[in-house]
UniProtKB/TrEMBL annotation:
The keyword Repeat applies. It comes from the Eukaryota. Pfam families: CRS1_YhbY (PF01985). Residues 1-80 form the CRM domain. It comes from Rehmannia glutinosa. This is CRM domain-containing protein. SMART domains: CRS1_YhbY. Its main location: plastid. Keywords: Chloroplast, mRNA processing, mRNA splicing, Plastid, Repeat, Ribonucleoprotein, RNA-binding, Transit peptide. The keyword Ribonucleoprotein applies. It is found in: Plastid, Chloroplast.
Length: 128
């Protein structure tokens, strides 16, 4: 299974439970770069799905999160009550992306011109 830009939402967990009908292990592929983000996602997948995190493997591009369903698996009736739906997850993803771009722009705009000069940025305004 591939984990898209929306992250962990109800469709991902439902897909995992569908996969677990016939197999014991599911591999979730994520393209996140930072290992801390990958571990956060892995723990979230583990908690929301009710499975057991086996390992996180570095791939050529991205990471693979391997989750075991457990012995004597029975599919839960409502597994995704506290997760976002597809539309809400996309809007959350876009908002996180916007915040990341704003933070990068503030760092670039408020960079020091000279070595001895320091600048402090507040909401896009740089103070010498």
């Amino acid at each position: 299974m591939a984990l898209g830009r929306r992250g962990v939402y109800d469709g991902v967990i439902e897909g995992m439970h569908q996969h677990w009908k016939h197999r014991e292990i599911v591999k979730v592929i994520t393209m996140q770069k930072k290992f801390s983000q990958v571990m956060y996602t892995a723990k979230r997948v583990e908690a929301e799905s009710g499975g057991i995190l086996v390992s996180v493997v570095k791939l050529k591009e991205g990471h693979a999160i391997i989750v075991y369903r457990g012995k004597n698996y029975k599919r839960p009736k409502s597994a995704t009550l506290n997760l976002l739906n597809k539309r809400e997850a996309l809007s959350r993803s876009l908002e996180i992306q916007r915040l990341g771009v704003i933070a990068e722009n503030e760092e670039e705009n408020c960079g020091a011109d000279n070595i001895g000069e320091e600048r402090i940025g507040f909401g896009g305004i740089c103070i010498d």
